[in-house]
Amino acid sequence: MTREFPLGTAPHIPSQYTVARVMSEVLLALLPGIFAYAWYFGVGIFIQIALASVFALLFESLCLKLRGRPLKPFINDGSALVTAVLFALCLPPLAPWWIAFTGMLFAIVFAKHVYGGLGHNVFNPAMAGYVVVLISFPQAMTAWLPPLPVAENAPGLAHSLAAIFTGHVPGGWDAVTQATPLDLLKNGIEQGQMVPEIRRSPLFGDYGGLGWEWIANWFFLGGFFLLYRRIISWHVPLAVIGGVVLLTLPFWLADPDSNPLPLQHVFSGAIVLAAFFIATDPVSGCTSGKGRIIFGLGVAVITLAIRRWGGYPDGIAFAVLLMNMAAPLIDRYTRPRIYGE
């Protein structure tokens, strides 16, 4: 005698990973780097994250309403918040409030919902929004503060709020902002200075920029957490960081006076953040293992080319967007063999 049990529709075993869970773990992994950022550059980063998050949720809600989609499941999935945090981490800590507004407008509306929403976007939304504000407002996007050991006192909450919402700082912007280590390297090399001479600036640490290298270390820790949790795979981080090291090592060995140490490239700018948190985006990146390695190597090559010959000291955002364009073609030619074929 057999007994039949009622069954629901497939799949019968629910996935352990939901979008909301993945996004919450990504946000958790970003926390060490965020607090390190605040330690060296002040509490302005918390204000930037709050502004970007508010604007992201606002535009997300507006787009969902216009498209006739329910708000709750999409607002609660955390994808807009991850976009906002990654975007805010690329901003100077005292960037005016309308930078976050403009960046989230393009990131959420044009880079995400115009293409159909979560899972359909061709470009990484955070990097799309960042590139728009970087090109549109170059002066505001280069107003970086010196790290805490150089500045002695990071701006407090009151000064940060005043600068972000009014655009005024005590003593003027020139008194509180300095060039970044990547700016110093790029401009110094173009002017014929030697790298050891450039690195005598107090803005440099052991390997990369002072403060920046510790922020990168904490993002490394968060990235390893994502690898441990199997939120991301090893292919893209290894390809990005390994590609940067392998491509710059021969030049440094051949002429260390004109070419920075490979670790200088890794621990200055946004290489580590991009390797673990941006280039690993499963929607706008590649899907196969070989494709992810090619994708990561492409990000490394383009970033280094822009740093050396381009008009921007750090080209990681442009590199990610250009490789986003190439991802479908890469996936087509790196498709794994079907089982049994």
Explained architecture:
- The protein is mostly helical and 341 residues long.
- It has two domains: 160 residues, no CATH class; 154 residues, no CATH class.
- Helix content is 62%, strand content 0%.
- It contains 17 helices and no strands.
- The protein is globular.
- The model has no long low-confidence stretch (mean pLDDT 89).
Shape: globular
Tell me the radius of gyration.
Answer: 21 Å
Oligomerization category of the chains in this entry: single chain
- Could you tell me the mean pLDDT? 89
Order of helices and strands: HHHHHHHHHHHHHHHHH
Helix content: 55-70%
In short:
The chain has 341 residues and is mostly helical.
In terms of topology, how is this protein built?
Blueprint: H1 19-41, H2 44-66, H3 71-75, H4 79-88, H5 97-113, H6 125-136, H7 148-151, H8 157-166, H9 173-176, H10 181-190, H11 195-198, H12 212-228, H13 235-254, H14 262-266, H15 271-278, H16 289-309, H17 316-333
Descriptive tags:
341 residues, mainly alpha, 2 domains
